[in-house]
Amino acid sequence: MHFHKYEKYWLTFGVGSLIVFLLITGIMAFHNGSHPPSAKNTINHEKVEQIAPFDKPGVHKVSGKDWDYEVVVLASAFFYNPPVLEVPLGAKVKFIATSKDVVHGFEIAKTNVNMMLEPGYISEFVTTVNKKGEFLIVCNEYCGVGHAQMHSILKVVEPK
Ligand code: CUA
pTM above 0.90? Predict the structure, then answer.
């Protein structure tokens, strides 16, 4: 079979870009650990404030688990409960969040934490906080008139 010179260039380019894209996706998924947030568990969103762990939103130290802290967040139009989170540097943290009303986002700026919070579903993400400072948490799903004001803060502090 005979290929024209330009056809060979295009074939090489096409196969080459396919390999590059697959490599990028592979590195993102397996090395950087970015994948779609799991929302396997369901919850009655109308009674969510009476159901554990959302009856006690906040930062909780846990033991006997694969992570050190559980950060429980309840989102509603247009704020997060609690409004400020504080965890020690180096801790392995599991974020557990859901929404009381409509779809909200939970993105911690400058990290790879980014979840969609849907009423009736529990979103979870485990990560190790290895950068000190204050990180803005923003809602990145349009949820109504107060959407642009919907935010909270994650403080990563020196362990006591
Ligand atoms: Cu909540 Cu946008």
Answer: no
